[in-house]
Structures are given as structure tokens and as C-alpha cells.
Design brief:
Strand content: 5-15%
Structural class: alpha/beta
Radius of gyration: 26 Å
CATH superfamily of the largest domain: P-loop containing nucleotide triphosphate hydrolases
Distance between the termini: 60 Å
Order of helices and strands: HHHHHHHHEHEHEEHEHHEEEHEHHHHH
Largest sheet: 5 strands, parallel
Number of helices: 19
Shape: globular
């Protein structure tokens, strides 16, 4: 008379979230309604050895479609184990939400949309030189990749909502930033009698050095990364001081101007790494100190490179949209940057993919908003002193770019913008 087993039935809101999260499993099938699609997912994801009904509210499944759910904390505290409820093959195919993604190399590929060889090269360069600079135009993902890579490199979660941690720190240089902020300096304060006194305060770099050295002393194998955003915007020699010597000669010690006692000298620990970012569109700032350039490896982040929009193309493949929309947007993006290079004779002023990586970009409303409020103002800034600043923007509108035929690669006979994913695009 009474059922022996119960399963939670998702309401309208949850049902939409589930179907969106698992859209890749549903893409090649048609269903009469949403409930039929849910039944299909249950059968696909459920383990044949499990005697209980498949439940979308089990911990590992819930993480995939609603990682912010308050129910997650409660289920986790209960110690719910779902390892036998879902097939191994199914779990490997589950959509991995960025907020819960473990620090795996596969996870790093997923969140950065960069190819494995590219990330492997960055890893090898950082291990070799210990100092890298990501350079590229606005919106090319330099800071985003630097943060995600640093978290993977230090074996931490790739959670986008986690602020600077014990092993990863981020700082942004600017014209007012100095040695006292970065390394060590005198700071005013008051004593117990309210009198003005000055104390030596360590900056962010010296604090991170101390943490890294303590880790070496403990022999716990931890690595530490400092991300310097917009490294070219600061007065390099004033900020780094004697660090310019230490960056080249790791293991050497130098005396600190305000140091005393056990902290009189500084050595950069071998487990401390630096990743800087530099905006190539800032022509007045892009030339950095040659001495600093010699101490870093440089990795260029070009939105369109060798005829391929790798990151944007990979991102589009993961979006729930028609293939014709993917092809149209990819073509639009590549021809836009081809047009900029043709008119301005440089790749340093490309428009980055992050401007277009937003929900609903395939719709006219969102695309028009992005174009008029982000892309066009940036183009106008690029062309401020150009003699054809009126004509060029008119030639770089979505309507004109969609009709533009891009160069064809002689080896593949495929439009270059189609090569981002290695498949021929739909007609645009």
C-alpha cells in the first residue's frame, strides 16, 4: 500500500537548472517534455548495481547543477556517500562546475579553454625560469589564466570565488606603488601614549618570501606564487630595488635598507614563483625595463593567432547554442581582429575574447550591447589619433564583418576562423 522507496521530484526551477547543466548528454536526443528528459538522464547516469532510484539531489550530482545549494552543506555534514549510485563512466561525463572543480590538469584545461600543450609549456617555463609574464591585448585572459594556473600549480582548488590564499597572492602595480609597499618600508603609527612613531613594515613580497621559506624549512613541498597584475604600470626599478639582482640569482642574499638582526638580508626562496601580466595595448607603458625583461620568460596571449581563435572557439563549443550561432560568432570574432590588424598593422590591439564570453551572446540583444558598450568604445580609443578614425569603425561593424571572407589556409582549404575546433563551420 505504501511505496518502499521515495525520490525527490525537481520543481520547475531545479528542473531547468538540471537540464541546462546536463545539456551535453541531451544534445543528440529529442523528448516529448522535460520529465522525459529527466527520466533519460536518470537511466543514463544510474549505476546498474544500484537498487535505489537515481536522485538528482545526491551530493555529487547536486554539485554539478546547483553548487550553491544550501542542501549541499547539510548532505555533506550527514556524510552522504553516493559512490555506488552513479556509474564511473557517467561520473566522468558529468558537467564539472567551476566552483567545485578540483585542482586537476583536466580541470585547468576546462576552465581556461587552453590546449594541453599550451598549458604544459607554461608549466615548464615557470619551473625553469621561476618568473613569467603573460602579455597580450585587453580581454585576452591574462589575469584569469594566471590566477587559475597559480591555483593548479600550488595544488589548490580552482574555485573562482576564493580570494588570495596562503600560497597565492595577487597585487596590481600602478604609478603610486613603491618599494615600501612591495618589499619593506617605514610606516607611521602611534604608541600607547598617542605619540607618532614609525615602524618597519614588511610588504606583500617579503611576507610571501617568509611563508615560502618556512615551508622549505618544514619540507612540506608547498609552492608559492605571486601574481603581479599590470606589471608594466609601476615604476619597476623603484618597486623592485635590489630584487632585480635576486630574481636573476636565486640563492643570493642582499641586505635590506630597513632590515636588522635576523631579517637584515633577503633571499628569494626556490619555491616562490612570479607570474606578471602586461597589456600590450598600452603603447606608452608597454616598454618595460630591459633588465627586468631579461629575468622573465614571456608568453603572448593573442585572441586570434595563426588564424585560430583557440580560447573563444573552445568556449563556444561548451555553450548551449545552435552550431550556426557558434560559427557566426567565431567568424565575427576572427574577422574583427583581422580587420584591426589590416587597418592598424599590429596584433597588439586585438579585441579580447573575454568581451564576448558572456551568457546570451548568440542573441541580437546581448551581442549589440557588448558591441556598442564595450567593443566600439575600445575601437574608438585605439583609433583616437588615426587619420581614418571615422571610416574604420564603419568597416568593422557586425553586419559588415559577417559578410567578410577571411583568408583560407592553403593546406586545409578551411577558413582560418573554422580551425579553432578543427571542423568546418556552418554557413554564415
Amino acid at each position: 500500500m505504501y511505496p518502499e522507496q521515495f525520490v525527490a521530484v525537481p520543481g520547475d526551477t531545479d528542473r531547468k537548472k538540471i537540464l541546462k547543466a546536463f545539456s551535453s548528454q541531451l544534445r543528440d536526443h529529442t523528448f516529448e517534455n522535460d520529465f522525459a528528459a529527466l527520466d533519460f538522464l536518470r537511466n543514463t547516469l544510474s549505476s546498474p548495481d544500484n537498487q535505489l532510484p537515481f536522485d538528482f539531489y545526491e551530493v555529487e550530482i547536486l554539485k554539478c547543477w546547483n553548487p550553491q545549494s544550501k542542501r549541499l552543506g547539510w548532505l555533506t555534514r550527514r556524510g552522504q556517500d553516493t559512490s555506488d549510485d552513479v556509474t564511473t563512466e557517467a561520473m566522468e561525463s558529468l558537467p564539472i562546475n567551476e566552483d567545485t572543480k578540483a585542482s586537476t590538469f583536466a580541470g585547468l584545461i576546462d576552465v581556461t579553454h587552453l590546449a594541453e600543450p599550451r598549458l604544459q609549456e607554461i608549466n615548464e617555463l615557470l619551473k625553469d625560469k621561476k618568473q613569467l609574464i603573460f602579455e597580450g591585448p585587453p580581454g585576452s585572459g591574462k589575469t584569469y589564466v594566471a590566477e587559475k594556473f597559480a591555483r593548479w600549480f600550488t595544488s589548490q582548488s580552482l574555485d573562482a570565488n576564493i580570494p588570495s590564499s596562503e600560497q597565492v597572492e595577487i597585487v596590481q602595480f600602478h604609478q603610486s606603488y613603491g618599494y615600501e609597499d612591495f618589499v619593506q618600508g617605514m610606516r607611521p603609527g602611534t604608541n600607547v601614549d598617542g605619540q607618532l612613531v614609525y615602524h618597519v613594515r614588511d610588504g606583500i613580497f617579503l611576507n610571501l618570501c617568509e611563508r615560502a621559506q618556512e615551508s622549505l624549512d618544514r619540507k612540506d613541498g608547498k609552492k608559492y606564487v605571486l601574481i603581479i597584475d599590470e606589471i608594466h604600470r609601476g615604476h619597476i626599478s623603484r618597486i623592485f630595488g635590489e630584487l632585480l639582482l635576486l630574481l636573476e640569482y636565486r640563492g643570493m642574499s642582499v641586505r635590506l635598507p630597513y632590515g636588522s638582526g635576523d631579517q637584515a638580508t633577503l633571499t628569494i626562496p626556490e619555491n616562490l614563483y612570479i607570474i606578471g601580466t602586461m597589456n600590450t595595448a598600452d603603447r606608452s607603458l608597454a616598454q618595460i625595463d630591459y633588465a627586468l625583461r631579461r629575468r622573465f620568460y614571456f608568453v603572448r596571449f593573442m585572441p586570434v593567432e595563426d588564424g585560430r581563435a583557440e580560447v573563444f572557439g573552445n568556449w563556444l563549443e561548451n555553450q548551449d547554442m545552435e552550431q550556426s550561432d557558434r560559427s557566426r560568432l567565431l567568424h565575427l570574432f576572427v574577422t574583427l581582429n583581422y580587420g584591426i590588424r589590416e587597418h592598424l598593422s599590429t596584433d597588439d590591439l586585438q579585441i579580447g575574447h573575454s568581451y564576448f564570453m558572456t551568457d546570451g551572446i548568440e542573441t541580437d540583444v546581448v551581442l549589440n550591447r557588448v558591441w556598442t558598450r564595450a567593443v566600439s568604445p575600445l575601437l574608438n580609443e585605439y583609433l583616437h589619433h588615426h587619420r581614418n578614425r571615422e571610416e574604420i569603425p564603419a568597416a568593422l561593424t557586425p553586419a559588415s564583418l559577417v559578410r567578410t571572407t577571411v583568408e583560407v589556409d592553403s593546406e586545409s582549404d578551411m577558413p582560418l576562423d573554422a580551425q579553432a575546433n578543427g571542423t568546418e563551420p556552418d554557413a554564415v
